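Sequence only, no structure available. Ideas?
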Amino acid sequence: MESKSFFNRVAEVLSEELSPPEQYQYLSFADDTFRGAVVVKAHGITDALFKVNALDINPHGEVLCVPIPEDKSPDSKFLNRLLTKEEITEMWGEPCKSIREWDEEEPE
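Reply:
I predicted one. Tokens follow.
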């Protein structure tokens, strides 16, 4: 995709995302290994990635973004910074697992 087309598409997606209210977004970054996670308040993945980049805390790699339900809002000490696996375990109260680990545990 050409640069101009890419930025036009990003602008289009972002304008669609900005309609609903902000909520906490959980972003997990990985390539062959876990690179870290970030929780920011944003409208969606595009807005969240803009904020992560503006905070200069993007560890790069593939990203998974999941909205956090309001009743699961994390403590402020976990917001707007790069989190380790240990901090994620502390935040959620259970061990941090990769998607592969979750898939391996699913009953067949």
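The mean pLDDT is 88.
Hope that gets you unstuck.
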